[in-house]
Amino acid sequence: MLLRSQCMDVRDDSLYKVCVGVPEEFLDDMMDSINENMEPAFPGYERAFSYSRSKGTWRPLEGSEPFIGEIGKIETQDEIRLEFVVRGKDLRNVLKAMVNVHPYEEPAMDIVEVYGWRDIV
After folding, report:
1. What is d(CA 53, CA 72) in angstroms, rounded to the nearest whole number?
2. pLDDT digit string (tens) for 104-117?
3. pTM of the entire predicted model
């Protein structure tokens, strides 16, 4: 059995792109919380995010406590898709901060290791 800490090899000096859907009314609090829990990933800039409108959909199952929706019924909701880059050394703290602000019981997050363009050029 793998422990959670063994599932992903997070390297302190690597960059990771994180994407999450969040209800619009939580967007500013989410960005502030993330920013407060990381060093800037881009020299000379902080609170660097990209976001766009999106639709989320899910069906809450028995035993869940959905923020939006009812058990057994498919829900579709307008959301904001928030994307940003974080250094590996800050990733765990940022994810914890996001979960503390996010209203969903199980926020869907994508986490992908990326390369900074300066590392390639």
Report:
1. 26
2. 999 999 999 999 88
3. 0.87
Query: Who's near 37: CB < 8 A, 6+ residues apart?
Result: 90, 93, 94, 96, 97
pLDDT digits (tens, 9 = 90+) for 42-101: 889 999 999 999 999 999 999 999 999 999 999 999 999 999 999 999 999 999 999 999
DSSP secondary structure letters along 70-120: -TTS-EEEEEEEEEEEEEHHHHHHHHHHHHHH--SSS--EEEEEE--HHHH
CATH of the domain at 68: 3.30.70.120
Contact assessment for residue 27 and residue 80, using Cβ atoms and an 8 Å cutoff: yes
State the helix-helix crossing angle for 27-36 and 88-101, rounded to 10 degrees: 150
Is 42 within a domain?
yes
Contact at 8 Å (CB) between 94 and 15? no
In-domain check, residue 9 = no
